[in-house]
Amino acid sequence: MSSITSEPRLEPQSIPWTKSTRWMYIAPSLLVVWIVSMFDKINMGIVMANGSFLHEMNLVGKPALLGELTTGLALAYGIFAPVWGGIQHRIGPRRVALYALALWAIGSVWSGLATSYGSLLASRVLLGAAEAALYPLTLALVARWFPMQERARATAFWWIGTMIGPALAGFLVTGLILWGGWRFQFYMIGGIALIPLAMFYWLVRDDPRQHRRVSSQEVALIEAGAIERQSGVLSRHLSADLGQLFRNYRFWFLVVALVGNNIFWWGWSVWLPTYLHTVRHFTFALSGFLSGAIFAAAVVTILVMGRISDRMFRRAGPAALGWLVGAGLLMAAALVPSPTLSVILMALALCSQQVGISMGESLMHSIVRAQDMAVSQGVRSLIMSVVGALAPAIVGVLIGASGNFVGAFVLFAVAILVSSGFTGLLAAQGY
Predict the structure, then answer these.
(1) CB atoms within 10 A of CB 16
(2) 318-334 per-position pLDDT tens digit
(3) DSSP character for 12?
(4) What is the distance of C-alpha 366 from the center of its chain?
C-alpha cells in the first residue's frame, strides 16, 4: 500500500478560544448532553445492584432479565438512529436535539413510575429511542462547526462526557438511591435532562452562519478547514456521495472497530457495579463509587490524546494500540486475586480502551463529508448499537450458566481485539 502524505496545517489558534463561538457554545453543549446521556445508561447498572429494586421488581436471581433491560434500550438506540439521521437531514441537528431531550426526560421519569417489569422495559426502550439521536447530531455539529485540524480535540471534548457521566453517576446515582430510593433517582435524572435541552435552545445553531455571535473571521476559518478543502489521505479517499461512501471498505472497517468497542462498552458499563459488589465483595455504596472512579480515570487520557492526534494527524495507530493494551489489562483484572489490584487494572484498561474509541470517533471525520454525516452516522449507530445491545443479555446468560464473570471478561477482551485489528489495517494506509 502506498504511503500517504501529511495534511497541510491550518492555524485555528488565530482566534482566541474566548472569542470562539464553537468552543464557548457548541462544544460545551455537546459535552453536557453526553454527560447527561450517560446518567441514563449507567444508572440502571447501579440500580441492578440495589436489593430493594431487585425485590420490589421480582428480579432476584434473574440476571438474564436484568441484562435485557439494557439490551432493550440499546436495540432501540440502534433502530431509531437512522430514523433520527433522516429527520435531521430535513430539520437540522438543533431541533432534533430538542425533541429527543424532551422524550428522554419522559422516558426516565416513566422508569421511576414503573410497577412491573414490562413497564420498566418499555420505559427503557423509549429512552433508547430518544437517545438514538445523539451520534447523528453530534458528529454533524462537529463537522459543521470545527475545522479538520481541531476535530480530534472537539471529539475528545464531547467524548469525555462518556467518562465524566459514568464517573458522576457513580456518586450521584448511588447517593440519590441511598437518600430517596431507586425510583427517586429516576425522577431526578429525568429532570436533569432539561439542562442540555435549555443549552441547545439558547446556545446552539445548525450552522456557523446562523449564529449571531460568530464573526466572519471564524466562519472563514471553519469553512477553510472543511474536509473537502484538505489534501493527502483526506482528498484521495473521500467519497463523493453516500452511495460511494457505503461502498468504501474503509468506512466499514471503522464501523466494525466501533462495533467491537460497543460490545465492550454496553456489557462493561451495565455489569461493572454488580461485578464489584458480588465478585470483589465491595459494599453496594462503595461499588457505585468505585465504578465512578474507574470511569473518571479515563478523562485525562482522552483530552491528552485529542491534542496529540490533532498535532500528528494520525489516529488509527493510537486507536489500534489502545484497544490492544486494553484487552490485555482486562484479562489481568479478571484473573488477579486482589480486589484492589483488580480495580487498578480495570482503571488502566479503561484508559487504554478510551484511547481506542476517542481516536476511532475522530477517524470518522477523515472518511465522511459533513453533508453525509447525519445519515451515515445513523446507519453506523444502527449496526453498532444493535450488535452492542446483545452484550448485556449475553453477559447475563454467561453469568447464569457459569456462576462467574470470567466468560464476560473474555467477551470484552476479544471484542476490542477485533477493534484493534481493523484500525491497524487503517493505520497501515496512513490514517
Answers:
(1) 8
(2) 999 999 999 999 999 99
(3) G
(4) 19
SS3 404: coil
Total number of residues shown for the chain: 431
Quick one: CA dihedral 204, 208, 209, 212, positive or negative? Answer: positive
- Would you give the DSSP letter of residue 119? H
**What amino acid is encoded at 347 in this protein?**
A
Q: How far apart are CA 96 and CA 94, in angstroms?
A: 5
Question: What is the rounded CA–CA span in Å between residue 25 and residue 27?
Answer: 6
Inter-residue contact 265 to 77 (CB < 8 Å): no
- The whole-number pLDDT of residue 98 equals 98
Check: CB of residue 72 under 8 Å from CB of residue 218. Answer: no
Q: What's the Cα-to-Cα distance from 394 to each of 5, 53, 169, 397, 422, rounded to whole Å? A: 43, 22, 24, 5, 23
Query: Taking residues 258-273, what's their average pLDDT?
Result: 85
- What's the pLDDT band for 148 if we cut at 50, 70, 90? confident
In the numeric block, which cell numbers belong to residue 99? 425533541
CB atoms within 10 A of CB 281: 10
pLDDT digits (tens, 9 = 90+) for 2-17: 333 344 444 444 566 6
Instruction: Provide, for the chain, the percentages of residues in helix, strand and coil under a 3-state DSSP scheme, each rounded to the nearest 5.
Output: 80, 0, 20
Rounded to whole angstroms, how far apart are CA atoms 274 and 280? 9
Q: Which residue has the cell 488477579?
A: 336
pLDDT bucket at 166, cuts 50 / 70 / 90 = confident
Domains and CATH numbers, the chain: 17-427 (1.20.1250.20)
Distance separating alpha carbons of residues 427 and 415, to the nearest angstrom:
19
Q: Are 302 and 154 in contact (CB under 8 A)?
A: no
The model's pTM? 0.80
Per the listing, cell 438514538 goes with 132
